[in-house]
Amino acid sequence: QSVLTQPPSASGTPGQRVTISCSGGSPNIGKNFVYWYQQLPGAAPKLLMYRSSQRPSGVPDRFSGSRSGTSASLAISGLRSEDEAEYFCAAWDDSLSGWVFGGGTRLTVL
Amino acid sequence: QVQLQQWGAGLLKPSETLSLTCAVYGGSITDYSLSWIRQSPRQGLEWVGQISHGGGTKYNPSLKSRLTVSLDTSKNQFSLKLTSVTAADTAVYYCATETVVRGVYITTPYSYSYIDVWGKGTTVAVSS
Questions:
Q1: A-B contacts (CB, under 8 Å)
Q2: Closest CB from A51, A97, A103 relative to B58
Q3: Percent helix, strand, coil in chain B (nearest 5)?
Q4: pLDDT per residue as tens digits for the range B47-91
Q5: What is the pLDDT of residues B22-35, one digit of tens each?
Q6: Residues of chain B with a CB closer than 8 angstroms to some CB in chain A
């Protein structure tokens, strides 16, 4: 069972806006930045968002992130077929002194 | 852009030792913290352990008694050893670099790191 809680699935049609939530607690999201990763089938995760809302170079501005209290969210606007993937949130946990992850949200583009 | 190449035995019997190595290309390992993460259908993504550029280690408490993460700066590589494996250790194991960010907030220095580049993963199966 993952420390961070994500919905197992999400879906949308091309062009729509989809939001994926990530819920944690005081030792992790409550005190530290949230990171988001995109994992395509058969591939390693790829960093999508750092410091809760910053995009690495090369990540389209259709992707945005936010954090409030002990929750965070990733929004994808102008949904495209290539966005179909699994999305994971992560945060450093001060109690564990290590990284904790969400269980992943599988995004389907209908 | 940093790239990682990882290797190690993919099939083990219970009680054997899992050994994986990760080579870092395009950067010096002394510029990063380095992590191992594993992924399985049962546990999802699970952080295994971390070694800092200075050699300090942090381990997942659930694995700490069986785990060693080490650094070889001469080869720009880092390694994982997990002893006494069981079927529960079956997973895809990823090595990853963590970018270290340092700054000063007003007069207080701070630093943090985050996992950015991942290796391609090594599938490890434990079966008798």
A1: 52
A2: A97
A3: 5, 60, 30
A4: 999 999 888 999 999 999 999 999 999 999 999 999 999 999 999
A5: 999 999 998 899 99
A6: 35, 37, 44-47, 49-50, 58-61, 94, 112, 114-121
